[in-house]
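Note to self: user wants both folds in one dump. Writing first protein now.
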Amino acid sequence: MWSCSIAGIIGCLIYIPIYYVLIHYLPEECRQSKIFYGILAGMVILFFMTTPLWCYSWPSFLAAAGFSISASVIIATDWSCCWIPDEPIILLLIIDGFMLAGQYIIIDSMVCTVSLFFYVGLYLLFPKGIGSGDIKLAAALCLGCPGQSAYIMTAAAFFSAAAGAFIYQRFHRTSKIPFGPYLLLGWWCAAVIGGECIEWLLFI
């Protein structure tokens, strides 16, 4: 494990390319203000700096930085125009393959398979409730969940999305919200507290 202070300094530097990508490479129909992108990039960096990946080693730090860039683009596009582009998902899959090959994370293949079938089933049953981009994102994130924590990711994503939809409905009179940001929040919960939650559930 290397110094978290060094990781913090480099994390601040990662903010610059994330902000640049958001400003220059998003489609016109998904554009928001520069202030929005600045706040978004900062929040994503802060969230990912709390994950074990950020301070474990240089390879895992690079993986976390890649996750941060992908997450920023996904949140920006899904929140603005309910669309998740393929490029950040492909980057997530490349990072997953790198982490799995180097055994930086070890997944439970059965849990990942069950979780993926769950999302596909939701898409087939409620095609207007969840999009194909959400399915692809869920698959990429499940492959990045260590152990059995894909369950935690799914539960956290749906609970937070339900809360978000309730709050959003109070102000906008509609409960339709982008699901991608909540999937990413679920992955963050799985990375930070997933192991402890699984142990607690098995204990009770």
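First done. Writing the second protein, which came from a different request thread.
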Amino acid sequence: MDNSTWSPRITDSEMGNAIDHVVFYYLSVGLNVVLNPVCALLAFCAGIVNIATFSQMDLSQGVNMNLLILSVSDFVLAIILVLMTFTYISFWFGIKSMPIQQVALFGFRTINYPVTASTAVTTVIAVVRCLSVVIPLTFRSVVTVRRQIVAIALGCLIGWSVQMYNQILALADIKSMISRNSFDIFRNVFFFTCLSIIVASMVFLTIALQRSSMFQSRAASTSDSQSKTQNRREARVMKSVILVLTIFVVCNIPLLMLSIMRLASIEFSRSGQYRSVEDLVDLIVGLGISLNASLNTFVYLFHNTQYRNIIKTSFSHQSRSSR
């Protein structure tokens, strides 16, 4: 996300002429004052529920551990989004005190860290689930939970190190075009690579699930009850992973569009003719990452029996204690 879209700019002299400034004003207010705060609060609540639930599940299973890490990164992202929406609403009401500006600056400098972490975790989840289909017999011995955590940590460290390097240059007021271009190139390569892996994994898992369903229907008469239960469990896990990947891809389409726009033409830059279009897409990026951090909860509720049982147990305990 671009820092500039969080401060209102609605005059003709400050905006490109691609979008009428009145239209852009109401769109920005609708997104930053209504939709983004609601979605950020939803992501915040979803993060609390997901962390509390997955922490009670069997973390010796890689999928549960990875989803817990994803929930933590999404929760941190939700906290930053809530802070940023709070600052924008304050700016909109004319409250521009130094503490609020410091909070906004903190959000600008830190939001890419949980975004990078969520991207790395989602990529690892996609690759791990594909490996479970390709090497089912040796999967548990080869793709251990520790190795999955190491893969996530390496992905995060690579992305974070470049982000920190760019911020060090900014704090030192080193305005090197080469350094800035290097950062933009790496950020786009990292995002495009992860997104490509996730899309390819989503297609592969969808085909594998369809073939597995056809095979199970043919072998239903000869399979025992234990095998049927195991197959149904694996199918539920695969469906939930496919849905999580689909949500990630759909919610990151605005970010993909923004990256392509910036690479395609300089007119989408801060001084370009179509900067208002870039600003609008950048606002939608914030909405997309908020939805990505919250919609996974509904996938877990409908496709993860253990997750659903823990939620039911927690609510039943609370209802009993309140009586």
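Dump finished. Worth passing along: The CA atoms of residues 15 and 276 lie 6 Å apart.
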